[in-house]
Amino acid sequence: MTGTTTATAPVTKRDRVGWGDLAWLTWRRHRWGVLALTAAVGVVVALALGVAWRVEATGGAGELFGRWSYVSVAYVLVVAPMTIGLAIGVFWAAPLLSREYEQRTHVVAWSQDLTATRWLTGMVVLLGVPALVLSVGVGLALITLMNSVNAVMPDRAPFVPMEMPAFEATPLSQVAYASFGFALGLALSALTRRTVLSMGLTLGVFLAVRIVVSGLWRPYFQQPLRMVEPYQALGESSGGPPADAWVVNSGFSDAAGSEMPYPRQCTDIQDNRDYATCMVDHDVHYFSEYHPADRLVPFQLYEFAIYAVLAAALFALAFTWVRRARRV
């Protein structure tokens, strides 16, 4: 009696999913969004460094073509990157979990050898680190551009560090916005489980928080300094706050510095010289509330801390919600 035996290949068992597997999965799922934002950032960085080189080479920021000058191009470049944190939140983080829930791929992805927490950690690290690198690169390029333009226009430097958009174009600010945007999109993605809804909410909440922090809170991180000066007659010049200061409020006041409404006595005067004389005769003063340039670093650290705390809370919410939520 003869028997046949069938040789079987040895079974290779993998104990757990490695970082290489997570990196490949992240790339396959999110490569188009990563490539699109990277390309956009690359264009901005290249243009910023190119304009900075041209300004330094020519020693001026004159006309480029038509009505455009190197200064106007620099303004566009400095404003544009303020949307990077928003783009990271809306297009990278908001679809991260919601797309898995909608397509029900999370049931397979979060299998026994890959927990939901570890899967999410891998995605956050593998997408979050490139996001921060891109934001730092933009910030460094814009610092170079603004310094180059200010250097050739010392009498009227167009970029005051304490004011927008220069304040928000630095690497520290860009990292803060990118971190907050990513954490916000991730938390809303986990809570809603709907891609379009989470993207829309991320857009709205991100803009609302940015407006509140920059417009309502930032001017009062510290008490502004106050300067009161007599209204100057025509042809005379008031010293005013330093040129590199950030003026947050100004108006008419009395000699004691108390704010007062527009003086009615001089309302109907048409001649500029008579108007100025009327203001001086009625002892009208002008007050300015401002922040000096030496508050730049503390202000940026205050704002960075605000967004860091918000990002940490949102990350904690996202991880807690995913770990406790139903898988189906």
> Distance N terminus to C terminus?
55 Å
Radius of gyration based on Cα positions: 28 Å
What's the tally of helices? 9
Measured by DSSP, the beta-strand proportion falls in: 5-15%
Mean pLDDT: 81
Outline the biggest β-sheet: 3 strands, antiparallel
Decide which structural class fits the backbone: mainly alpha
Q: What's the number of structural domains?
A: 2
The count of DSSP E runs of length 2 or more, i.e. the number of strands, is: 5
So what's the oligomer here?
Answer: single chain
User: Which stretches are low in confidence, meaning pLDDT under 50 for 5 or more residues running?
Assistant: none
List keywords for this structure.
328 residues; mainly alpha; three-stranded antiparallel β-sheet; two-stranded antiparallel ribbon; 59% helix
Protein described:
This protein has helices at residues 19-58, 70-79, 84-103, 106-109, 116-152, 171-192, 195-217, 272-281, 296-324, and strands at residues 63-65, 68-69, 225-230, 246-253, 285-291. It is mainly alpha-helical and 328 residues long. It has 2 domains: 19-221 and 296-324, no CATH class; 225-293, no CATH class. A 3-stranded antiparallel β-sheet has the order 3-5-4, with no helix packed on it. Strands 1-2 form a two-stranded antiparallel sheet. β1 and β2 (68-69) form a beta hairpin. The mean pLDDT is 81.
